[in-house]
Amino acid sequence: LRRQILRPAVILVAYVEPADVAGLSNAVDLALIACAPGLTRQRNAILDALPHEAEFVAFFDDDFLPHPQWLHLAVAAFDADPALAGLTGQVLANGVCGGEIAPSLARDPVDVDERAGFLRAVGQDPVLSKVKLIAEPWDLGDAGYRLGGFPAGWSEWNDRFRDSVRGFWRGDPGQLAGLARALTGSREIFGHRGRAPGASIH
C-alpha cells in the first residue's frame, strides 16, 4: 500500500495473534487492531476504528499485491458514478492455497499458452516484472500439467525433484541419474530459452 500513487489516509491492520503482525509494531503509518478470529469480526473491527470523515474503504487480504494505481483507479470509479456502492476485481492468485491456479491464468482462452495475455501483462508490468514469480504449474483443466512451460522470468515448483529425492531416499532402483539432474536444476525441463537453474524451485 505504501507504493500506491494515491496514498491511503490511514492503514488499519486487524490481527489475532501478535505473531501475525511481527515487525509492524514500530510502523508509524499504520494502526494495529487486535480482534477475535474470523473475517467478519476483523472487518467489523476495522470499520469501528475508521475515522468519521472516511469516504472510501478498501479491504485487502495480507496476500494481496495491488497494482500501484489500484486505489487511484478505484476512487476514480466512485467519482465517475455516484450510484456506485462497491467494486471488486478478479482474484489472480490465492496466497493461502498457493499458486496452483497458475496454468488457469495462462489459458488464452482455453489452451495453456506461455504467451497468454496475463503472462505478457505481468512481464511488462513495472512492479510485477521485478519480483520473484513462482508458479505451481498444474491445475485440473485439460493439459493442465505444465512443468517447464512458463516463460523466462518465472520459477516453478518442481514436483519431479520431490519425486526423485523421495524415490532415492526410499531406495527405489534407478533413481541416481534423476536425482543428479534434479539437484543441478533439471536442465532437461527448464534449460530451454536460456532459463537458469533457479527456475526450478524445490
How are the secondary structure elements laid out?
Blueprint: E1 12-15, E2 31-34, H1 39-49, H2 70-80, H3 102-105, H4 117-124, E3 133-135, E4 154-157, H5 159-170, H6 176-183, H7 187-190, E5 200-201
Helix pairs in contact: 5-6
Please sum up the structure shown.
With 202 residues, this protein is α/β, with parallel strands linked by helices. 29% of the residues lie in helices and 8% in strands. The strands form 2 sheets. It has a 3-stranded parallel β-sheet, with no helix packed on it. The chain has a two-stranded parallel ribbon with strand order 1-2.
Question: Can you describe this structure?
Answer:
Helices cover 29% and strands 8% of the residues. By secondary structure, the protein is α/β, with parallel strands linked by helices. The longest helix is centred in the C-terminal third of the chain and has 12 residues, at 159-170.
Content-based structural category: alpha/beta
Strand tally, please? 5
Helical stretch count?
7
**Radius of gyration over alpha carbons?**
22 Å
Work out the strand percent: 5-15%
Largest sheet, in brief, is: 3 strands, parallel
Approximate helicity band: 25-40%
Low-confidence segments, ≥5 residues, pLDDT <50?
93-99
Give the overall pLDDT as a whole number: 82
Terminal-residue CA separation: 30 Å
Strand arrangement, major sheet: 3-4-5
